[in-house]
Amino acid sequence: MNTTFIRSQGKQPVFEVIVVGGGAAGMMAAETAALAGAKTLLLERNERLGRKLLITGKGRCNVTNDCTEEEFFRNIPTNPKFLFSAISHFSPQDCRAYFESRGVRLKTERGGRVFPVSDQAQEIAAAQEEACRRAGVRIETGRVNRLRMERGRIAGVSCEDGREFAASCVILATGGKSYPRTGSSGDGYALAASAGHTVTELKPSLVPLVSEDEDCAAMQGLSLRNVELRLWDAQKKKPLFSELGELLFTHYGMSGPLVLSASSHIRRFEPGRFSVALDLKPGLDEAQLDARLLRDFGKFANRDFANSLEELLPKKMIPVVVQRSGIPPLGKVHSITKEQRRELVRLLKGFRFSVDGFRPIEEAIVTSGGVKVSEVDPGTMQSKRMPGLYFAGELLDVDGYTGGFNLQIAYATGYAAGFSAAGKRAQKEEAE
What we know:
By secondary structure, the chain is α+β, with helices and mostly antiparallel strands. It has helices at residues 24-35, 69-74, 84-89, 92-101, 121-135, 187-194, 214-218, 257-263, 286-299, 318-325, 338-349, 405-431; strands at residues 6-7, 13-14, 17-20, 40-44, 64-65, 106-108, 113-116, 138-141, 144-150, 153-159, 164-166, 169-172, 203-205, 209-210, 223-233, 238-249, 253-255, 274-279, 351-354, 357-358, 366-368, 389-391. It folds into 2 domains: 6-204 and 367-431, FAD/NAD(P)-binding domain; 208-358, no CATH class. 30% of the residues lie in helices and 22% in strands. The strands form 6 sheets. A 7-stranded antiparallel sheet has the order 19-18-15-16-17-14-20. The protein has a 5-stranded parallel sheet with strand order 8-4-3-12-22, with helices on both faces. A hairpin with a 2-residue loop joins β9 and β10 (153-159). It is elongated, with a radius of gyration of 26 Å.
């Protein structure tokens, strides 16, 4: 069913809860508020809901992570304590149950990552939109450009086309600044600031890395699978991240799942501090790799060194490895010394590149930074500065590593905001 507009004495549509933003967090907030009995309006600037959902997980949508709450918080580097209440009321297991109860079959893959069995992000977005409509949420297209405030509290919103909507509660779930083509252009930060909120520094997270190493550009387009990436911190003299997976060399540096994950561990970039080291043969220890080289070199004993690695490495990588090894490319394989071979093994087990920056925030999967969480009630997601104003999702200064943790944050905070806003309007009605 659809809710019916309740009109004030003027021509202004009146709702009890307005949700601004029709992404994962916004749809969860709107459905939850409506199911709790609030007359709810969902305003989305795009013609369709969940546009950013459609591109998550390479179009497969990693909706959550099948982990314990303790494991979940270990994967939240920014303000994890703020999420304790929200996750306790909408855990990863609750998230799974939510989608399965709405007809979405789920599966768990490596690292606890949860995907729809269909591998189609569209199924997740469609399930949430249908759930909103069934709950009675009114869905409108419109870009909110102003919060309406009266007597020190929220009174509604105004849209850039001149329409105004009244409500005693407004939930901002507009997303961050990443992927602006999906509607996440940062509008919510200005709206939050207009209500007196502090917005912390906005930085990219889960973003491709820039490397000025010319070898990256030389291998542009080369995709590596089943390699191990270690992110090194020269200041702390230890690796910050290590994982097995895939990466892609680009004209600017590196991208791919491993690189995106590594980027989220760089909380503050400093020139010369970070580098990545690739283990190109993680399934072999140094002795086993040396034995493999001996077999190949025995097979190609009379070849030039530059032509002896075709069974070991991708074609596009061979010239780079040959140059880095210091072994004469035209020297015969049978003339390679034991020490040269050992150095080659070390190179293949620690293929290093500098990290010289991030790609722009617009290319990031997640925005790190946002509305300062000390100004938001962690139990309700309500503003401590503007009664009736709530926040959900990426707009908040909370973010996680890759693996379904950021969508879980969106769903948990959306649920908390929707449920609390619906309860707040009921309290307001009783007071009146």
